[in-house]
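Re: weekly structure request thread

Next one in the queue (287 aa):
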Amino acid sequence: MSQLDQPTEFDAKAADSGANATRVFQSKETQARTEISKERVDEVATAAIKALHEVIRDKKVTYEEYDALKAWMIQVGLDGEWPLFLDVWMEHVVEEDANADRHGSKGTIEGPYYVPNAPALPAECTLEMRDHEPGTPLLFQGQVRDVDGTPLAGATVDIWHADDAGFYSQFAPGLPEWLFRARVTADSDGRFYINTMQPAPYQIPTDGSCGRLIAAAGWHAWRPAHIHLKVSAPDHRLITTQLYFEGGQYVDNDIADAVKPELMLAPTPRADGSGNEVTYDFVLDPA
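Done, posted below.
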């Protein structure tokens, strides 16, 4: 295959992205498998089934609609899109409840595009990118602290985000493996200085089963531009979050309903004219 025939990120297919998201999740789930009691399964499953029964009764679902649902659910699995479906439409509620007792920084959903074991980089670093990477350069800096204000030396800032066209490495062809992905170690004052590029808003994949649901319901498929982060330090609770950009498209109507006012960034031009900079500090709860 010649270089001109090589697939690019714009050739990304929902089935390929879904299959990779499923593979990554299955690897993570196998490594951190937890036992759930029969009593808890009975409690949650019974409540969920009863809730669906009420929807069927309330909306008078027909057999034709019921069969269409079965066919769609089967195809979601064949497309590998259960991680995408659950992360877009369900995860934000799980996250809100799981983190309701936090006193530090706000969290939000992880989403389906996290990949563990990204390259380790020092506190002052530049994320992997291509020569002449499209977009606006961004210096993302800040500090990691305890809720009492103590800087957390050596904290880990695990960062990943889409490129200027809205694609994620390892989920679209033609991109460097670790494009805009790294595990950054904060310095002795808990500070970090990460050179990257501002990500763009993007549509979740629309050529698979999730896209068919979106089209059938007349919804839009867009997420606002955002930076994903997992921030951790010894003896403290890891926080998984996303940071968004003030005034950005889809901030007010994110399809994943994951935006929170506490998670907004306000980039300003750098003094040397080399793009934008933004500061955001993370506050971690003790474990």
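The first strand starts at residue 120 and ends at 121. The chain is about 30% helix and 20% strand.
Next request, please.
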